[in-house]
Amino acid sequence: MDSVGVAAAAPDAGPGPAWQSKCPWGAPSTTSISCSLADVMSEQLAKELQLEEENAAFPEVVAAAEGPFITGENIDTSSDLMLAQMLQMEFDREYDAQLRREEKKINGDSKVSISFENYRKVHPYDSDSSEDEVDWQDTRHDPYRADKPTTTPRRGFIGKGKDITTKHDEVVCGRKNTARMENFAPEFQVGDGIGMDLKLSNQVFNALKQHAYSEERRSARLHEKKEHSTAEKAVDPKTRLLLYKMVNSGMLETITGCISTGKESVVFHAYGGNSTEDKVIPPECAIKVFKTTLNEFKNRDKYIKDDYRFKDRFSKLNPRKIIRMWAEKEMHNLTRMQNAGIPCPQVVILKKHVLVMSFIGQDQVPAPKLKDVTLSSEDMKKAYYQILNMMQQLYRECNLVHADLSEYNMLWHDGKVWLIDVSQSVEPTHPHGLEFLFRDCRNVSQFFQKGGVAEALNERELFNAVSGLNITADNEVDFQAEIEALEKMNEDHVQNHGKKLSTFSSDGDPPIYDE
């Protein structure tokens, strides 16, 4: 470039030096466009600004919403009907565009989306959807039915001659059976046969139908069993509600967890709440929840139906009632034992099939069972005489037979034996009361004889010592026969007189064995 060209270009650059126009920190030169107040208040300008904002926020939605607007250049607008249709069409487009914007705003990037498709007002000639995008789930079309349903006439067949087709036609019945599979339960998977001409024979359809019904009934039974029965280390909603009420009322402070499980119940540990004037709640409690299922202990009814205290209320057809009576039976038996001074859990409260008792143990650790503890010879001898004394007290003062006494139902705590699990205990006048007592004597005698207690009596001597009866028999078979004869005499007396009076002959009171 020559000097003339540079001199000619200099005046165009402005009066200031050249480095000022290229300075990055210089103030930008802005040109303000003046507008009048009328332009600012113009509605058309407001609409244009709103449209620009919508295009910036939803460019693809607005682009889809914008379409060819029917103008009045080539249409006669003198008709009011035509004007109304044009306005309605424009209103419908704006309404659909608003729905699309709402869908995008609500759904966002979520995998689960909602649709306002049923609320749109798209005209047939204004729809952008194609037939390829139609999903069977979004339509009410039945893929198994023909587009034009054919009705079977009253005479039961259609066609003439060789082309006659009856309602028993194999193809027709097969298609109908395929369509009927939709009536199965939702959890019964029938597969996806859309687009296929499926035909099920009557034999296959009937087998599937029977299987679907049986599965539905089985699932209903399993659901009902799960919701209405207690399971291993778990409680049903009704039992859980009872426990929640005990905690909310302040009777219990908190329930820590399960400490024992058995064939008839589940035992939980809990800390006691606030005591009242009429009810003293121990610091630690044991919650015994009786299982409402009879799977593991099905013969428990024989302990209740012949007990005169519950005979009139016994109902074998209602297992939940049996469980409540079973829990009530243990509460009454524990109360008798407590009044007699026998070491046993103290009853706090009974709510249906949930029994709250005092906890035998300390700091959430239950007292060990007699079978799990290792005792010295002196403690073993002391435990034997204590159990013998308790069996006599139970028979004479409480008028009860434990009926399940063994080393599994005796705890060792604070240097003495505690009796638990007396829900099956019956009175001696029970039709099988003496049999249960003899079984208890056998368990106790065998345990302490194996434990090295030389003073332990055999089962027959222990039975006579506890009951006060003088049954003399040389062997066990004759001994049990005399026991059954005594039970038969008592049963006949009850049937004749209607009273539970013991007819056992004894030589005075049973002896009390002590160390």
UniProtKB/TrEMBL annotation:
<dbReference type="GO" id="GO:0046872">
    <property type="term" value="F:metal ion binding"/>
</dbReference>
<feature type="domain" description="RIO kinase">
    <location>
        <begin position="224"/>
        <end position="468"/>
    </location>
</feature>
<protein>
    <recommendedName>
        <fullName>Serine/threonine-protein kinase RIO3</fullName>
        <ecNumber>2.7.11.1</ecNumber>
    </recommendedName>
</protein>
<feature type="compositionally biased region" description="Low complexity">
    <location>
        <begin position="1"/>
        <end position="18"/>
    </location>
</feature>
<keyword id="KW-0418">Kinase</keyword>
<feature type="region of interest" description="Disordered">
    <location>
        <begin position="124"/>
        <end position="161"/>
    </location>
</feature>
<keyword id="KW-0597">Phosphoprotein</keyword>
<comment type="subunit">
    <text>Interacts with CASP10. Interacts with IRF3; RIOK3 probably mediates the interaction of TBK1 with IRF3. Associated with 40S pre-ribosomal particles.</text>
</comment>
<dbReference type="Pfam" id="PF01163">
    <property type="entry name" value="RIO1"/>
</dbReference>
<dbReference type="InterPro" id="IPR017406">
    <property type="entry name" value="Ser/Thr_kinase_Rio3"/>
</dbReference>
<keyword id="KW-0479">Metal-binding</keyword>
<dbReference type="GO" id="GO:0005737">
    <property type="term" value="C:cytoplasm"/>
</dbReference>
<dbReference type="GO" id="GO:0045087">
    <property type="term" value="P:innate immune response"/>
</dbReference>
<keyword id="KW-0808">Transferase</keyword>
<dbReference type="InterPro" id="IPR000687">
    <property type="entry name" value="RIO_kinase"/>
</dbReference>
<keyword id="KW-0391">Immunity</keyword>
<dbReference type="GO" id="GO:0004674">
    <property type="term" value="F:protein serine/threonine kinase activity"/>
</dbReference>
<dbReference type="InterPro" id="IPR011009">
    <property type="entry name" value="Kinase-like_dom_sf"/>
</dbReference>
<keyword id="KW-0547">Nucleotide-binding</keyword>
<comment type="similarity">
    <text>Belongs to the protein kinase superfamily. RIO-type Ser/Thr kinase family.</text>
</comment>
<keyword id="KW-0067">ATP-binding</keyword>
<keyword id="KW-0690">Ribosome biogenesis</keyword>
<keyword id="KW-0051">Antiviral defense</keyword>
<feature type="region of interest" description="Disordered">
    <location>
        <begin position="496"/>
        <end position="515"/>
    </location>
</feature>
<dbReference type="InterPro" id="IPR051272">
    <property type="entry name" value="RIO-type_Ser/Thr_kinase"/>
</dbReference>
<keyword id="KW-0963">Cytoplasm</keyword>
<dbReference type="GO" id="GO:0005524">
    <property type="term" value="F:ATP binding"/>
</dbReference>
<dbReference type="GO" id="GO:0051607">
    <property type="term" value="P:defense response to virus"/>
</dbReference>
<keyword id="KW-0460">Magnesium</keyword>
<feature type="region of interest" description="Disordered">
    <location>
        <begin position="1"/>
        <end position="20"/>
    </location>
</feature>
<feature type="compositionally biased region" description="Basic and acidic residues">
    <location>
        <begin position="137"/>
        <end position="148"/>
    </location>
</feature>
<dbReference type="InterPro" id="IPR018934">
    <property type="entry name" value="RIO_dom"/>
</dbReference>
<dbReference type="GO" id="GO:0042254">
    <property type="term" value="P:ribosome biogenesis"/>
</dbReference>
<keyword id="KW-0723">Serine/threonine-protein kinase</keyword>
<keyword id="KW-0399">Innate immunity</keyword>
<dbReference type="InterPro" id="IPR018935">
    <property type="entry name" value="RIO_kinase_CS"/>
</dbReference>
